[in-house]
Amino acid sequence: MSTSNAATTSGAASTPVFAAQQTMVAPPAPRRRVTRKTWQTVVWLVVLLALTAVVLYPLVWLLFSTFKPNAEFGQNPGLLPQSPTIDNYIKVLEGIAGVPMWRFYANSLLIAVASVIGTVISSSLAAYAFARIQFKGLGVLFAAMIGTLLLPFHVVIIPQYIIFNRLDMVDTFWPLLLPKFLATEAFFVFLLVQFMRQMPRDMDEAARIDGAGHVRIFWSIILPLVKPALITCSIFAFIWSWNDFLGPLLYLTSPDNYPLPIALRLYNDQTSSSDYGATVTASFIALVPVLLFFLVFQRFLVDGVATQGLKG
Questions:
Q1: How far apart are CA 175 and CA 116, in angstroms?
Q2: Where in the cell does this protein reside (predicted)?
């Protein structure tokens, strides 16, 4: 009995020692995993910072170049100006061709804001008809609308110009704005249609039982639910309209009606030699509103695009 008790006692005593040895030996493996994960994080951080620097360098170069004298552009292609000056800003703010810079800004802002309003209203109405209303020829019309996405913009330039010229709308903002109110942007219509189709139709049926018509359903039920998609459309419509060069170049002939993209061309066309300092400065001033607009609404843009992959 004493021998068995001693064996039992020695076994019981050896078990905690063995367990303690296991406990003392186990930690190095997690440490190696933590170290490996930390190094992976550091490597990815360095790579992302390098890519960010590459992407942001042109913007930073543009900013510093606005302080370079015109003669320095051919001598100093580097980042920092050798003789900083604000003459470029003074020249740009005074305007060109007898038109102040604020007028070009106002024209661009008017066209961009009106384009956003027209695009959101017309595209949402067309999308509601395609997504929530059943009518004869729905499939054919929707296929035709999708087919317009395959057509290059240049295909419809000449017919549109002939129409607006006969309507005596050339050198006005109407050729740039009227198509926006007629749901001609098939991309936005398609985006909203896909968003609305994910919503359960039980909401429509419940609203009809309560006596609501299409207008009430569209305004009170559908629009609040498609807010992320509407903001996405607004962001794209604003940026595309603000940066549009071909449309204003075709339809606008008076400098008083020029938006910023056309005004930038004047700094290169007025003389035989280009005014690089004024061109770079005007380009940076024109870029600021778009950059701020995107930074403010980028969260809504991500939400709107991400929600496209969800089933409602």
A1: 15
A2: Cell membrane
